[in-house]
């Protein structure tokens, strides 16, 4: 079963569907700036759990962030956990600049 993931910028989220179905199987909400994309919530409908929908959402969104040269802030526990298990995406993570003392 193929998972198709598309960016829906007007809804500020990525959506996943299976095999061309019209029903959304899962989504990942984000906030995007010119330099950063923050993933704030990911949800997969219960009937689609265990079918790779969440992984497809994370992989597609992170691949597109990389292609757009965006840093990633993963406040969503699912996306944060997914990145932790896939070290090839960890270089995308946003790192706050440390303050320099006077």
In short:
By secondary structure, the protein is of the alpha+beta class. The chain has 2 helices and 5 strands.
What are the key terms here?
alpha+beta, Aminopeptidase, five-stranded mixed β-sheet, 2 helices, 5 strands, globular
Q: Average the pLDDT over all residues and give the rounded result.
A: 93
Which CATH class of the domain at 3-68 applies here?
Alpha Beta
Number of helices: 2
Order of helices and strands: EEEEHEH
Main beta-sheet annotation: 5 strands, mixed
- Spans of at least 5 consecutive residues whose pLDDT stays below 50 are none
Oligomeric state of this protein: single chain
According to DSSP, the number of beta strands is 5
- At the third CATH level, what is the topology name of the domain at 3-68? Aminopeptidase
Q: Which strands sit side by side, in order, in the main sheet?
A: 1-2-3-4-5
Bin the helical content. 10-25%
Helix/strand-derived class? alpha+beta
Quick one: overall form? globular
Beta fraction:
25-35%
**CATH architecture label name of the domain at 3-68:** 3-Layer(aba) Sandwich
Radius of gyration: 14 Å
- The CATH superfamily of the domain at 3-68 is Gcn5-related N-acetyltransferase (GNAT)
Termini distance? 58 Å
